Amino acid sequence: MLPTSKVSRGNNIIPFGIYNIDFAMNIIRKQKKGFGSINQVKKRFQQDRKERDLSFDVGRMPRDILEKMLVICGRVGKDNSDIYRKKAKALGADFLVEDSGSWVFTHRTIRDNYQPDFHEGVLLIGTAKELPSTRIGYQDSYAFTDWFLQDIEGDGLPDIPIGRVYGPSETVLFHMDPTIIDSDIAVVFDSEPGRSMRHVEGLAALGFDVEVLERFHDDDNELMGASEFILQFSDGMYTKRIHGTPDRWASHNSVILSHTQAESIVFKGYPVIFSEACSTAQEGPLLSAFLNGGACYIGSTLDTMNNIDEYDDWKDCPYADGWKFGFLDLLDSYDLIGQVKTQVDRELFSRLSQPAKLQIEAIRRSDSHEITDDTALSVVEWVLYGNPLRRTTVGPDADYTPGRLLVDT
Questions:
Q1: Is 8 exposed, middle or buried (0-12, 13-18, 19+ CB in 10 A)?
Q2: What confidence tier does 34 reach under pLDDT thresholds 50, 70, 90?
Q3: What is the C-alpha radius of gyration for the chain, rounded to an integer number of angstroms?
Q4: What is the pTM of this model?
Q5: Residue 272, exposed/middle/buried by CB under 10 A (0-12, 13-18, 19+)?
Q6: Partners of residue 185 on adjacent β-strands
Q7: What percentage of residues in the chain have a pLDDT greater than 90?
């Protein structure tokens, strides 16, 4: 459950667009030009903690953005749906209840009520069973995806940002109207730090002050809580890289971050978390911990795969690297996190092979639930949990293009 203090955190609420905040206000100063720093954030925390409590002001999302949210609530109980309806009304957002038992009806409700000239995204309330999502299977494993709900034009291409949230009413209410931090701090989890610096340098080029962690320790709680972006990185040798389950990130010989550790983190301002490991976006303890803690989470619901060939352009790489570097590339190109996610999905799908597209089309038509093509799975399995209208996460002077993608195994 989201702590009450989390929802109302901050004695000094600042509006968006105010920058150059000084340490005298207990705020880490944002850099005006050039790259962000690498592996300097923890040192700054430790130095400043000797003199004062390090804290960060946060601001509410602008009302003129939230009123462009279409909220669709599933079968979460009348008392809860009434609470969410009241909140949506206060925000000026459109609100609907969908009580069917099929994702086809969820999709129809979105298609019939989404106004492209007004709405900026859809927030789904409920688990994949409370508000049906699309069931997909790969190698005898099954999960759900919201990928197909993004298409309202009927051409197979994702059109609109979709986010989903579930949990206690306190959690859902926070995600409907979150407080946003602007710390420019990014944390990277990498089990082999230094093996590749491309992702770290990419985040620095996006204006972040980047800290690389091999695994989570209790003294990282404050750093994580103040972060704006968290990247869980899974490249490298199979026996050494970070793998995922619905309850943890882990390497072969170490727990990187468990759901109980995630539950201990007090996020100050709705960070965006991207997890590259397998199955972490299934509706399990890890995802619940992040949602209840007040984080926006993007991950896969089934197996993720690393590319075995090099690609000149991430748009041609229908594997985890293509999605990851595509997401980083477009963070400085769109205003909202849901727009970034949808555009990555569009670009990767548009360049898929025809056989892979046919497998995806068979699922869209409800002719099949099974996927056998690795590239088809890798494109449709990424799900955004959280508010898709969250402002994109970049630091000052963000400017990043990934370039050629190398083989990462």
A1: exposed
A2: low
A3: 20
A4: 0.88
A5: buried
A6: 209
A7: 75
